[in-house]
Amino acid sequence: MELIVVGLIAVNVLLSSWILVKHGGNRSNSKAIDEKFGAIKQDLNAQMAENRKEMALQMNQQFKLIMDMVRESGKDQNETLRDFGKLFRENVRDFNELQREKFSDLERRQEKMLISTEARLEKMRETVDEKLQKTLETRLGQSFEAVSKQLQAVQKGLGEMQHLATGVGDLKRVLTNVKSRGILGEYQLQSILENILSPDQYIANAVMKKGSSERVEFAVKLPGNKEEPVYLPVDAKFPQEAYHRLLEAYEVGDKSVMEAAKTALYRAVRKSAQDISQKYIHPPYTTDFAVMFLPMESLYAEVIRDGGLAQQLQQEFKVVVAGPTTFAAMLNSLQMGFKTLAIQKRSSEVWKVLGAVKSEFGKFGDLIEKAQKKLNEANNELDTLVGTRTRVIQRRLRDVEALPEDEKDKFLDS
């Protein structure tokens, strides 16, 4: 509207200017024009005022109309929002109910699955336990039977060792100076051997050199490096005449006679030692020394009274002088060696038996270890099965729980 009024004013101005130019400055006309201009101005002002009023009225009406439309639109929007909220809450309620039903169904399925899994696992456990029990009973029975047999063998071997050790008490006979039966020479030597050694531990009238006719009175069997034994030659010597002369010299008390008798006795002993060395010492079939047995303790004491003589006999002729007590002690020492060797041999057998027992116990340990591995494998299978089912359930629950935080709060508040 204002643009129209401005346009009219511009038209009037242009028209007035044209009139002035056309009439060339006529004052009367100028006055008329001024009056006409004034009238036009008044009309224009009046028209503009009227237009402003009309414009204001139209604007008020338009504003009122807009406000009514806004109010009406707000009411519609509120009703729409209320309807939307109501519908949304109903949808959320239905969704929650559906989720509860799904969760309940999932829980029921999970419980059924767990019950079924536990039943299957219990059945598997019973089967495994039954098989393991049977296997263990069978293996343990076999192992203990073998161990019992081995222990019986060990007990038997120990009994034999104890029987071998009973002969050690024979050493007391030497320590208490018990004299063997017999009187002199070979008979006394044989008696000592029979009392101390077993018959298979010595031989009588033995040939010490192949092809020789010389026979030693007795030879003691000693263990050799191989299966063949080594013989210890033992020969009884009794220089009776020289010894009787020495006894007579002691009775007379003549020192020169005693010295001469001693010299004769020592000479006879040396001669006997030389004969023994030449005839009976033949290594390696025999030992590198021999024993000269003197049947009387007094004779033996007389020979060893001169320490140089006994040492000389050992160095030159490899002959050891022994009286009845000394020879018995020597035999007992040898007997102890024999029994120690036998015990060592039996000990090796016992160790073998114990080794077999150890092997059986090792097998028993292996069986126990295998059974433990089977139990561990069954336990691992249970853990794997439970872990797999748990992960499947968690994956499904993870999909169900995928809901924004704000919507979850709204659902819970409703």
UniProtKB/TrEMBL annotation:
GO biological process: DNA recombination
Protein name: DNA recombination protein RmuC
Keywords attached to this entry: Coiled coil, DNA recombination
Domain of life assignment: Bacteria
Function: Involved in DNA recombination.
InterPro entries, per the entry: DNA_recombination_RmuC (IPR003798)
Pfam family, any one: RmuC
Organism expressing this protein natively: Echinicola soli
Highest classification ranks of the organism: Bacteria, Pseudomonadati, Bacteroidota, Cytophagia, Cytophagales
Similarity comment: family membership: Belongs to the RmuC family.
